């Protein structure tokens, strides 16, 4: 179950201010590392070690004064459909308004947890005022100031308490979970149907694990894996296509629930900006990734076509070009097994641990041959390296002056790690720490 926390409320209560406060620290660092531009309306947050995605629904649904009603309905619908916890924001300075009551009426009918966030409770004087929001008929009311941060700790304690506990008791621990994402018409359903068609491959059907996707446990092509299929959903439910939000949320949910993502693209259309969004999301969420260029049968080929295609995609990927690319035709059942094999391979790369002595021998040699450039007349000395005990590969390089290491050197290090230790398709993190 994906951990999505949605912020709803009428305009100007402070939704985007709270949103920025919740995501700022972490997001800035991660985006920096992945070279990813920041989306204004959803982001990763963490509190006491628990991770969740925060969504500012107001950013997706803006209402002018006269279309408020529709805007409320859309915001609330998004929150009810997609979120596990809903933060309903009101403004203590203004007090309770009719629009707040309209929101409350709809929110009271859900069985999802709703917390009233009485924002702009900036000082003790205003602390006397927020109690009126108990009149909204929702049990939990938290006075906060999104501006100065007061009260947000108590709010977040409650939020993480309400989040579904996902990873504990995972009976499929150790089996790669693969999500298939991509633009409409790339061939995702055909791919899943091809796998499903070979019925003997299916071990158990885990339908209903999450409402929005179908997870099936396979044993196919000599590989054991769980496939999360989001393709069918769009076809079953009639979501409003105009809200781009839904496709983003579906991708986020599928990504959160998976280890490796197969991004499927249509060879006859090429690699487009929406595809890059998925690549960025996968990097941001530290998921493994492969690109499956489907409908390869439609392309007129010579012996260099695949090479050219690969080069073209890699240019667009920039620093994320560690992603393997597989050319398939689901229609002709060509290299479909190769795609699965590659995705499982990426999963194995993610769990790969390098012995410390080997890591130090090889990397200190590389660093000796090409040390970090001196900055402000100071020499930077990297003394030793360890792989951190994290879920995806991350490495700490201990040195005297970590603050002087620049991005190009960080990329050099990452490239050398990849060249020596084979992290194809896997996001890796490199930290420089003070010895
Ligand atoms: P949204 O429309 O709900 O996303 O609201 P914004 O986050 O854009 O905030 C609307 C206005 O309220 C801005 O001028 C914010 O600076 C202000 N604001 C947000 N949070 C607080 C707060 O905790 N205290 C005070 N006094 N103002 C706030
Ligand atoms: P989805 O929207 O990503 O689930 O895409 P579908 O699986 O519904 O496929 C869209 C269309 O592409 C259908 O008409 C498929 O028959 C067709 N298609 C899928 N895979 C291939 C392929 O490898 N080659 C060709 N030529 N057509 C394909």
UniProtKB/TrEMBL annotation:
One family from Pfam that matches here is: KH_dom-like
Entry-linked CDD domains = EngA1 (cd01894), EngA2 (cd01895)
What are the alphabetically sorted keywords of the record?
GTP-binding, Nucleotide-binding, Repeat, Ribosome biogenesis
- The EngA-type G domain extends over 3-167, 176-351
BP-aspect Gene Ontology terms: ribosome biogenesis
Positions contributing to GTP 1 binding: 9-16, 56-60, 119-122
Repeat as a keyword of this entry, yes or no, is: yes
Q: Name one GO molecular function term.
A: GTP binding
Which InterPro entries does this UniProt record tie to the protein?
A: G_ENGA (IPR031166), GTP-bd (IPR006073), GTPase_Der (IPR016484), KH_dom-like (IPR032859), KH_dom-like_a/b (IPR015946), P-loop_NTPase (IPR027417), Small_GTP-bd (IPR005225)
Taking the record's annotation, the residue ranges forming a coiled coil are none
Xref: PROSITE patterns: G_ENGA
Q: Which SUPFAM superfamilies match?
A: P-loop containing nucleoside triphosphate hydrolases
Q: Quick one: which residues bind GTP 2?
A: 182-189, 229-233, 294-297
- Physiological role: GTPase that plays an essential role in the late steps of ribosome biogenesis.
Q: Which HAMAP family match?
A: GTPase_Der
The UniProt entry's sequence similarity note says: Belongs to the TRAFAC class TrmE-Era-EngA-EngB-Septin-like GTPase superfamily. EngA (Der) GTPase family.
UniProt subunit comment: Associates with the 50S ribosomal subunit.
Q: What is this protein called?
A: GTPase Der
Source organism per UniProt: Persicobacter diffluens
The organism's lineage is: Bacteria, Pseudomonadati, Bacteroidota, Cytophagia, Cytophagales
User: Gene symbol?
Assistant: der
